[in-house]
UniProtKB/TrEMBL annotation:
Keyword Metal-binding included in the entry's annotation: no
Protein name: Uncharacterized protein
Native source organism of the sequence: Amoebophilus asiaticus (strain 5a2)
Membrane-traversing stretches: none
Alphabetic keyword roster: Endonuclease, Hydrolase, Nuclease, RNA-binding, tRNA processing
GO molecular function list: ribonuclease P activity; tRNA binding
InterPro entries referenced in this protein's UniProt entry, alphabetically: Ribosomal_Su5_D2-typ_SF (IPR020568), Ribsml_uS5_D2-typ_fold_subgr (IPR014721), RNase_P (IPR000100), RNase_P_CS (IPR020539)
Signal peptide: none
Example GO BP: tRNA processing
Biological role: RNaseP catalyzes the removal of the 5'-leader sequence from pre-tRNA to produce the mature 5'-terminus. It can also cleave other RNA substrates such as 4.5S RNA. The protein component plays an auxiliary but essential role in vivo by binding to the 5'-leader sequence and broadening the substrate specificity of the ribozyme.
Superkingdom of origin: Bacteria
Amino acid sequence: MPKKKVKHAVDRNAIKRKIKEAYRLNKHLLPNSDTHFLLAYVYISSQQHCDFSTIQEQVIKSINQLTRLSK
């Protein structure tokens, strides 16, 4: 999240915390195998305040796509 898009550090950190928490709650959806993944989530939005449920939906969507690709 560039400072240009989200001006205040408090808001940038809140978004990062929400992304980390959404991943932590849903990482069990990843396949248990010998394959290792490197994931990076990039927040791209014109909204400075995004609710947790929206972020969580997108994290789940990305994990499901990754799971389908790994099969």
